[in-house]
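Why run this: before we spend reagent on co-expression, it is cheaper to look at a predicted model of the complex and decide which construct boundaries make sense. The entries below are exactly what would go into the expression plan.
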Amino acid sequence: MLEPQFFAHRSTLEVAQRLLGMELVHDSPEGTTAGIIVEVEAYMGPHDKGAHTYGGKVTPRTRAMYGPPGHAYIYLIYGMHHCLNVVSAPVGAPEAVLIRALEPTRGIELMARRRGLDLPPPDGEGYPVRWLKKLASGPGKLCQAMGINMEHYGLSLMEPPLYLRHARDPIPTSRVATGPRINIPYAEEFRDKPWRFWIRDNPHVSQSKRPTG
DNA sequence: GGGACGATCGAT
DNA sequence: TCGATCGTCCCC
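The model came back. Tokens follow.
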């Protein structure tokens, strides 16, 4: 299980890269689901024109971003989809890391059910990647698959029911790719900051990826 | 009270 | 390329 120390003396950009390869777990009444984080984006506080906290605005929605690191900042986008962020900086510094894609590891059937997808025909070696990548290869999709919603707003991600854990060795820098963040055309000079990170060649990274950086 | 808009997704 | 769908935020 992740500890508060993880965030100490570590910048948001470092936190973002370190989250790659970690497992996000949700113990819910319906069952447990989990996945390895394979894609993230960093949102860098009051100066970042792509961030909800640009200008240092404090609103009911963004309140959690000003809270302690390791807690969940969740918002509803387009009236339909939830997105999960890990607050990444000390109290008062509204920085966070958006979780953009997971590689499903546990509770595949439950994830499929939540996503409204039919299970593929039985296969000797588990489910084909072509099908698994439909489950959580995007920030809205992963929240739906994991059963994450506003009930989890502000909760610690360092203890059940929704938590992060070290499931593998850290992803070496050589396997981390970087590039501009997705869908922030209004962010002006921050639009092309290379603050999106993903595990190179991982098939579960969301679509619309741009060339490696 | 009103209106514009969005850190998305999936069908066309 | 475009529509869904509604909470948030800002302005009146």
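The CA atoms of residues 116 and 134 of chain A lie 11 Å apart. Helices of chain A lie at 12-19, 108-115, 129-136, 139-146. Bring this page to Monday's planning discussion.
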